[in-house]
Amino acid sequence: VIGGAPVNVADSPWVVALSSRDRFGGTRAGQFCGGVAVAPTRVVTAAHCLSRQVLGGPVESVRDFRVITGRTELRADEGREIEVAGARVNPGYDPASNAGDLAVLELREALPAGHVLPAAAAGDAAYEPGTAATVYGWGDTSGFGDYAYGLRAAQVSVLPDDDCRRAYPGDADGQYRADSMVCAGVSEGGKDACQGDSGGPLVARGRLIGLVSWGRGCGRADSPGVYTRLAPLIDFVKEPATGSPAAAA
Ligand code: 4AZ
Fold first, then answer.
1. Which helix (H) or strand (E) holds 105?
2. Domain Peptidase S1 spans what residues (predicted)?
3. What are phi and psi of 80, to 5 degrees?
4. Nearest partner of 67 among 117, 135, 133, 13, judged by Cα
């Protein structure tokens, strides 16, 4: 997160870190993406977090794939690491355009019922332009690979679709699609999600409205962050679990 401030995960217990020490090792507990709990045994994240490009192989080969909850500081011995039993990638996800960038993870153990964040349905006031929103993550704080150890959050605004289209008209930097994305930022730049925050939550009015997905750089003026819009995916998120990890992979 660029331009953010430290926050305690106790105040936003639905924010989780995706981890694989096997793949990502190091001093940051193997954190590689963010996520958000939407039910006691269910987390949503960005589909691109599960891509071979990010994972270095197929998701089913990530043997120590865990969700870290209740841990503000990645080096601290606190919270819980819960194994991921299975993953469902949104069948409408289009890696070429980033449309529908969402996947569901099934957890082997349940989180407390109060540690989940409901998603905002279509038409919810939380999507209205100008709404104050907060993005959370352990990602890059500078745009130069300075990954955080502690959870951070930045305050941004939901932007009008016209502004998002103007920023991303479909050139080399990508195309904004109002049906499947929401964009947020501040016009002068300096507050944004960045690499490593992907899959983490954008929250407005106490509802989940987006997942960190893509953008042109981090924190640049006139380059808002682009988020997966939750409303069109609520039915997919609520589908019953598919069962075994093999079946889900
Ligand atoms: C990334 O590379 C990434 N500024 C995530 C979010 C944004 C840009 C890049 C938005 O994962």
1. strand 103-107
2. 1-242
3. -135, 150
4. 13
Q: What phi and psi values does residue 232 have, to the nearest 5 degrees?
A: -70, -10
Q: Catalytic residue at 101?
A: yes
| CB of 249 closer than 8 Å to CB of 139 | no
Question: For 79-92, what is each residue's pLDDT tens digit?
Answer: 999 999 999 999 99
Return left, alpha or beta for 93; rule: phi > 0 is left, psi -120 to 50 is alpha, else beta. beta
Q: Coil, strand or helix: which one is 166?
A: helix
The ipTM estimated for the assembled molecules is 0.96
The verdict on whether 19 is a catalytic residue reads no
pLDDT at 243 (0 to 100): 56
Length of the chain: 249
HSE-CB for 139 with a 13 A CA cutoff: 30
Q: Ligand 1 pocket check: which of 45, 142, 195 to mutate, most ligand atoms within 8 Å of Cβ?
A: 195
